[in-house]
């Protein structure tokens, strides 16, 4: 699905829930363009096309839950933040619909108000940011003296050192210290087998059937970029996920199959009810 | 006798006028020569005791208000800058204006409008954790700096904008931030915690019991 | 009929006057913002066909001839320069700005964070010997001063930062220096070319929590 959005919509990104072509899923879901769950909620709220103060929080919660559900159905992975928010909204929904229990917890109404405030405040900040960035800016629209004349310094400033320089220098020292002393390996941001096992285990429950191994890789780790680092990350994720599936296969939790040398690897839960074999060649 | 007094008065006036004109020329030259804004105190020190610096600056500002170069103030510092309305004719893209990420832009405006503000508060407003590079980039640009620590548990560091931030965005003071009065009147700059605890992953985030329970379902 | 022509003429005149005024403002801004003297041909190209560049430059030159800044031409290139007669006033104090060496910045930061601290301690933290000159430079800048002697063998001198240090870096107190945790959070403890920073994730990293946690261990 092509991105139908113009570059100008950065600040008013409509949710990517668009009618798809025939035969395609009805919803196109992409969480990648949202700056977190509140941003997604705000985008959904804008779609209600009413003043944020008059928004139906209940309807919004339902919309969000449907959105995340769809995201999970299609893409199989949703960042934890979004899931936590979904759980909170489900809770909010129940508080709004059910009679208020005799507890000291905030009422559904209070929770809804807090959420509405959160949305208004983020919207206000996003609008303020847009207005700020639209101002004429030094170095782009407005220019300082291009040929400053070498006059004496008026601020009794002997040396040109900024606080940033100072803090950066101290940070460098701290970092060097970490390197010396007991062997301290710098944190290498690679996908570990433990991560992969957790991830595959978590996703297994939602797998319909034989699923290609590379579908298990987190979206950020699929080597979309061309840089050496992106490729390194993607390799680490693939290798870790492969070892993870072997571990889980050994534990009897899943089956692995490959239809030929260098062919794609498929994975499914062991208790998956018998499904028609994938329409590839015979094993 | 009478004639003498009549003659003397204008002479004195003229001398005062000349001195003031010279002072104005000096201020003009100092500000013109410098690419960076100059502290008002530094200008005052230049002119010496008893000079009407404020009047001179006002007069200069008025003189330049219709010209191609304007005299502007930001955080008590003065500088000549090209007139904003000429921007379409002068515009150029430099690394200064290279695209900031959306996260960086939002973080910058939250710091600007809510300062002094802690990282946990920024995260609570945005609803997501702040990635490491964001504050780093804004600080390297010279737009933000650490402020006083908040006297709350953990004594978290607060963040402020710098005079260079005002200079870059052509603001004389924080009161000139777009829409700041309306936002304050609407209560949208209040420190009121919203659903803070839910969305901030900061160290001080304590999830309400109910949320934690349902999240673990 | 007559009324119409009478009305039209000033309108045209005014328009022509406005355009010329705008052109003058543009020339003024371009000359102000340019790092080098500007070729007359380049100015002419900016204004487009038929503009009276020569007249505009003459008028600008006349306008500025009594001000603190003059418009000067050399070899067909134009630039603003501070008025020569102000030179003695402008150059009364001469102070040279210099960049602080890396060793000096590091030493200063260690004194700021660890004060009171002896030279031996500074050297042990930096891992290299500190030349006497480094402390001298910092003392000359007014940022550090000797403190009490340490009551240990040799009674070494300790070093402290001064109020001028706080002033220069815009800090209200030493307590407002960001702590190591803050530095880490701001990305200042990251080695620039290291793999972790190259991989810095967006705020919206679509990773399950478990992955993130273990990756940061």
UniProtKB/TrEMBL annotation, chain A:
Superkingdom to which the source organism belongs: Bacteria
UniProt-listed Gene3D superfamilies: 6.10.250.2410
InterPro entries given in the database record: ScpA
PANTHER family (UniProt xref): SEGREGATION AND CONDENSATION PROTEIN A
Name of this chain's protein: Segregation and condensation protein A
Organism: Nitrospirillum viridazoti CBAmc
